[in-house]
Amino acid sequence: MSERRGVLSAGTFCVDFNKSIARWPQEDTSNEVMAIDRQGGGSGFNMALDLKRLDPFFPVQAMGVVGDDDLGRFLFHECDAHGVDRAALHALPGGVTMSVDAFNVASNGRRTHFYHQGVAAEMTPDSFDFSSTPARILHLGLPGAHKAMDGPWRGDANGWVAVLRQARASGLAANLELMTTKADRLAELGRPCLPHLDWLIVNDYEIGALAGRETRRRDGSTDAAAVAHAIDETLALGAMRWAAAHFPEGAVVGGRDGSRVVLGSVAVPAGAIVGANGAGDAFAAGMLYGLHEQWPIAKCLELGHACAAASMRAVSTTGGVATVAECLALAKQWGFRPFSL
What we know:
CATH architecture: 3-Layer(aba) Sandwich
CATH superfamily: Ribokinase
Number of domains: 1
C-alpha cells in the first residue's frame, strides 16, 4: 500500500433534528420550537463533514451502520454531496437509523440531546474492516451510545477496545471521541481504550471523568488547573502522544513528554453565535487535521479553536465550518481570549 493519507471517521452516524427554543421549559407545559433544522450528526458524520469543509481535497472515509430508511438515505446523500467515501457505511436491511433531538436554548447557549439508537444498538466490532483502508488516522466514537459495542466483546472490556486493537494491527493511528454521560459510566467505557490510542481530544468534563477528578466548579465554570492535572493523570493511564481538553474559555494540551500548551478560545461576538451544537466536534476536527499534517501542536490548537468558533455561526453541527484559511482568518479577526493556568 502506498503512503497512508486521510482520516477514517467511524462509529456514530445519525440524523440530528436541531430544535431552537427560547428557554428550557418546565414539565407539563407547552413551549414553542422557534426553528427546526435537519442535519447529519454523530461523531462519525460530524468529523467527516468538518474535515471536508476544512479541506475539500482531504481524503475522508466513513464507516459504520445506518438503517435502510429515509434517514439513512439522507446521510448517504450528504456524504456524496461533500465527497466523503461512504463505501464502508452500511445500511442494515429493515433497520431504523439513529436519530437525535438536539434542543438549543437561546437564553443560555446550552444544548440537550435526546437520542434513539435504532440500528446503532446492533453495531459490533465485526462491523469494522480496516484491511483495505488507505487512511492514516481512525477517528472513533461514541462509547455510551451503542448497546452492543458498550458491552464486553470476546475477552475485551468492550467492543471499542476490540475495534481499536484491530485498527492498530492494521497500521492506523487512533483518536477516540467520548459522549458526555455520567462520570462513572464514561470512565468505565473510556479507560480500557486509553492504552490503544495515539491522541485523545475531549472536553473538560470528560477528561475529569477519565481521571476521577472534578474539573468543574459548583457554578459550572471550568477549573483549568484541575483540567491540567486530569490530563496528566489520563496520559499516565494510556498510550496517547497528546491529550487535549477544551472548554468555553480555552483549551489545555498535554504531551507524554511533559510538555504543555494552552490557548484561550476565540472571542466570538455574541451576535455571531447561532448555536454551540457541534463546536466540540469542530474543535476535534481542527486538531486532528493539524495532527495529520504534522503541524506543531500549538498550530493544531489554534486551528481547533478557529474551527469551533466558525461552527458556532450555524445551528447545525457542521454548517458553519469553513476552509482552513477562512477559519484561521476568522479567528484572527475576532482574536483569542486571554488565558493561562
